[in-house]
Design a protein that fits this description.
The structure is a single chain. Helices cover 43% and strands 12% of the residues. The chain is an alpha+beta fold. The chain has a domain of 32 residues. The chain has a two-stranded antiparallel ribbon. Helix 1 crosses helix 2. The longest helix is centred in the middle third of the chain and has 15 residues.
Length: 67
């Protein structure tokens, strides 16, 4: 799990007084119970496939001419 996702739930847990792991579990349970589906658009970039909205670290960004 990405750090920014964990940080999001940790901040929310401080506000709500619930452990962040429980908040993540409750959110996932809510998704299951409501039948929510993930919406992902896949795009090709320099021969690699990734989910739309994927965040790159500066060292991971494909440069011109790289594959």
């Amino acid at each position: 799990m990405e750090v920014d996702i964990i940080d999001y739930f940790k901040k929310m847990s401080e506000d709500m007084g619930i452990q962040y792991q429980n908040l993540i579990n409750l959110h996932l349970l809510e998704c299951v119970q409501s039948g929510r589906k993930i919406s992902i658009k896949w795009v090709a970039w320099s021969g690699r496939w990734m989910g739309f909205g994927h965040k790159f670290l500066p060292s991971e960004i494909p440069r011109s001419g790289q594959t």
